[in-house]
Amino acid sequence: MIWRFLARRTAMLLVTVLVAGLAVHGALFIAPGDPATLLIGGGKPPNPQLLAEIHRQYHLDEPFLQSYARWLGGLLHGDAGESLAYRDSVTHLLGQRAGNTLFLIAYAAVLIIVPGVALGTLAALRGGAGDTAVTIVTTALMAVPTFVMSVLLIWWLSVQWAWFPAYGAGAGLTGRLEHLTLPALALAAAWIAYVAQVTRSAVRGELASEHVQTARSRGIPERVVVRKHVLRNASGPIFSVSGVAVAGLIAGCAVVEQAFGVNGVGALLVQSAAKQDMAVVQTLALVTVVVFVAVNTLVDVVGAALDHRVSLEGAA
Questions:
Q1: Predicted pLDDT at 45
Q2: pLDDT tens digits, 138-149
Q3: pLDDT of residue 106
Q4: Are the C-beta atoms of residues 298 and 45 closer than 8 Å to each other?
Q5: Cβ atoms within 10 A of the Cβ of 295, count?
Q6: Nearest-CA neighbor of 192 among 260, 123, 261?
Q7: Helix count and strand count (H, E) for the chain
Q8: In the prediction, which pLDDT does 69 show?
């Protein structure tokens, strides 16, 4: 069953990559403006001969389908093309910035999963005022957009209190942790609330289940009931929502990296899109799609393994 599921997901991924690449390439192809002007600069009208030479060198004069086929063929051979804006290969640009983005996503993932699961479990087990407080706080966090949270954190923890730097990615482990704390918090805030809410619902549902009531009636200690019967059976949906949250961080990185001046893949995507740097935008868009689908596939497989009530046939 798992092999059929993986085969279907692989086929879906290939189709998604083709469609996404075609859509991005088409959007950039019909966008107004001429990317070749990036290489010329200045306020004077560009020389037509120079423009024609740039078009020829970077294949900007090719028809749409020919241009798309050439770019896609290059990717299959490991050549993502050359950036117009940065005068460098796309692969090298991506490699220079991937470390910051991966560190930011990993940091935010820890901030999402640990507090989110802990708060949701606490709210479900304790109930009362604790449950109400967690519900109010998480609902408020879910309503705040990422860019607004970024501005609030910069104003509060960087400008007012000067606890954390508001710009850059830092160097070394300590420097990165210090510089990326605010970006990670801004990226994780809404997802912490989401994970906490789902965890709360999953744990509360298990607490009311028949097998938990039976375990309690047999005199099993409450901590054992919670650990072996409640949390173990609630782990499936908790893991699934945590995986979706981590996958969602990929899209949110662009906003956060721009806000905090982090030299990462998301910021590169935004800057390249503004400059109509087709090679960079297309490649980063496809990388994002592939990573997102791969993470969701992994989440479905592990979620089905943790919770046998979930079928891979339905997940596909």
A1: 67
A2: 888 888 888 899
A3: 93
A4: no
A5: 17
A6: 123
A7: 14, 0
A8: 84
Residue type, 6: L
Residues pairing with 89 in the sheet? 82
Using alpha carbons, list the distances in angstroms from residue 254 to 31, 80, 259: 21, 20, 9
CATH class of 93-315: mainly alpha
Query: What secondary structure letter does DSSP report for 89?
Result: B
CA distance 170 to 24: 32
Measured CA to CA, the distance from residue 300 to residue 310 in angstroms comes to 9
Q: What is the pLDDT of residue 102?
A: 92
Closest CA to 120 of 130, 110, 129: 130
CB atoms within 10 A of CB 268: 26
Measuring CA to CA, which residue among 124, 97, 118, 190 is closest to residue 152?
A: 190
Q: pLDDT, tens digit, for every residue of 212-271?
A: 788 888 888 878 888 887 888 787 788 888 888 888 888 788 889 988 989 999 889 888
Give domain limits for the chain.
93-315
The values of phi and psi at residue 310, to 5°, are -90, 130
Q: Which residues of the chain have pLDDT under 50?
A: none
Q: What is the Cα gyration radius of the chain? A: 24
Residue 199 tokens read as 């965890």
Cβ-Cβ contacts under 8 Å for 109 (sequence gap 6 or more): 188, 242, 245, 246, 249
For the chain, how many residues are written? 316
How many Cα atoms sit within 13 Å of 263 on the Cβ side?
A: 10
